[in-house]
Amino acid sequence: MTGECPxxxxxxxxxxxxxxxxxxxxxxGCPVIVGGGHRGVVLSAxxxxxxxxxxxxxxxxxxRRLCPHATVVAPDYEVFSTVxxxxxxxxxxxxxxxxxxxxxxxxxxxxxxxxxxxxxVDIAELIxxxxxxxxxxxxxxxxxATVGVAKLASRRAKPxxxxxxxxxxxxxxxxxxxxxxxxxVGERTAAQLHRLGLRTVGDVAHTPVxxxxxxxxxxxxxxxxxxxxxxxxxxxxxRRGVEEDPDKSTGAxxxxxxxxxxxxxVLRELLRLSAKVxxxxxxxxxxxxxxxxxxxxxxxxTITRSRTRAEATDVTREIYETAAGLFAALGLQRxxxxxxxxxVEGLQPRAGxxxxxxxxxxxxxxxxxxxAVDRAVLRFGAAAVQPASLLRSRTLxxxx
DNA sequence: TCTGGGGTCCTAGGACCC
DNA sequence: TCTGGGGTCCTAGGACCC
Length: 400
Known about the structure:
By secondary structure, the protein is an alpha+beta fold. 43% of the residues lie in helices and 21% in strands. The structure holds a DNA duplex.
């Protein structure tokens, strides 16, 4: 059976909450919620908090009501990222075939590692022991023949466990599960399936694929039907270096502390977000052609407007001017705005100085300004450079 | 004091080209 | 004077994931 379950899915248990509290013995066994901001949501909750009904994604206000005694901790993404890097390194010492899904979970193809390290259960225990010893947090592991089943198995294993699903037991494992357990089935799709009278994965499996496709679309319908039979061809896609596998888009958005109806404030925020996105794109040596602005109104309705430029850009000023133009074209008359966002899509590698030769003298000035900002941020940190100064003076004041 | 922030993928209509 | 069809790009929205 060693060769029958070549895919592991490893998932940290309550990752953010575990990391934030591992050095706090006083909080062991206590309800802990990672989140914050007065308009925020729960990012992660410890298991004692979950037993009160707290879930990630839930508004903080509701979480506090459900679990008034919980300790609320602000997230520290630098620590999360450091722990994540170490954990992924443990995985890579087991097999080079690691597909990172997020900071706290990954697929491992262990088909080449069993001769050296033993059965899937042996390997899962090895990983769990090392993660616990070296990082002080627990994780759960699912083992199966395919990524889709391994992912469901690890959820079944939580917290702090292992579940192996051999191929012969796949349908017996899958079919009793609720449809919302399937990867890709969220609230909306689950409601659609319920309307068809389908509540379990087995129900989906025994529904003609054409019926599913009529209700959910060709791709989704076909995918769900295959998943319900544990039939998924997708292999573990070990992510290569970022050079070969860059992001397709990058963006930033921000919910205001309170709803805003002053266009000046919105524009200043668009500039700040454009600078943030521009800096990220330049750091990754990318450039993108499509700029998208997102606006969420007080009633939570959300719209996007995008424009594709003739040439890819990584220049903050160009991103900002495109974004500001899109926002102005909305013609909003003091609408109450909850959130704005800026995203650059269609990212492609930016080859060295090619871009700069294309620029006119004025634009070259903005690219130079960006480089000065990037250098200043590297030396003094992001707080040293206030993008708002760009807006007001149209020149870069490094003394700011 | 309901509802974050970072992404990916799919759909659908219209423009435009051959 | 009654009109094809395929392919690609662009835009907007929606669903989903962590």
